[in-house]
Amino acid sequence: MTATELCRACGFTLLAGGDRELRGGVYCCDLLSMVMGRAPADGVWFTVMANQNTVVAALMADVACVVLTEGIRPDEAMLARAAAENIAMATADCPSYEAARRADEALHAK
User: Fold this and answer.
1) What residues contact 39, with CB distance under 8 A and at least 6 apart?
2) Which of 9, 75, 91, 93 has the fewest CB atoms inside 10 Å of its own CB, making it the most exposed?
3) pTM for the complete prediction?
4) Under a CB-based contact definition with an 8 Å cutoff, are residues 32 and 53 in contact?
5) Please, which residues have CB within 8 angstroms of residue 59's CB and are 6 or more apart in sequence?
6) What is the mean pLDDT of the chain?
7) How confident is the model at residue 18 (pLDDT cuts 50, 70, 90)?
8) 22 to 28, 45, 75, 77, 85: CA distances (angstroms)
9) Which domains does the chain have, with CATH numbers?
10) CB–CB of 50/68 below 8 Å?
């Protein structure tokens, strides 16, 4: 499943890079150092942290897609960095747990 397909299935808003395949499952965390060591490669990371360090952590963990939750939106610099690094970026208006649960169900339905 691609990030585009996941966003469509879960009601997320895709903002950048939807072609990357999602193969690693879901991860919820707002502590960047934990993400770098524990997020699954090619997975989907759910967080409220919206800054360029989030993209760097996603890159270091080889996360395929970052979903900002709770209605948080990235600034243009964050979006540009995500696009340059081939990391899909999306937003969800719901809490991280609910968004991750939806994504997990969608990923396992395929």
Assistant:
1) 24, 27, 29, 45, 58, 61, 63
2) 75
3) 0.96
4) yes
5) 85, 87
6) 96
7) confident
8) 15, 11, 24, 24, 16
9) 3-109 (3.40.1390.20)
10) yes
Query: For residue 92, which amino acid is it?
Result: A
Structure token pair of residue 62:
């080889």
- Say what percent of the chain tops pLDDT 70: 99
At position 57, the amino acid (one-letter code) is A
For residue 28, CA distances in Å to 9, 84, 95 come to 19, 23, 10
In a 13 Å sphere around the CA of 93, the CA atoms on its Cβ side amount to 2
**Residues in CB range of 29: below 8 A, 6 or more apart:** 35, 38, 39, 45, 46, 47
As given in the structure block, the two tokens for residue 43 are 């997975």
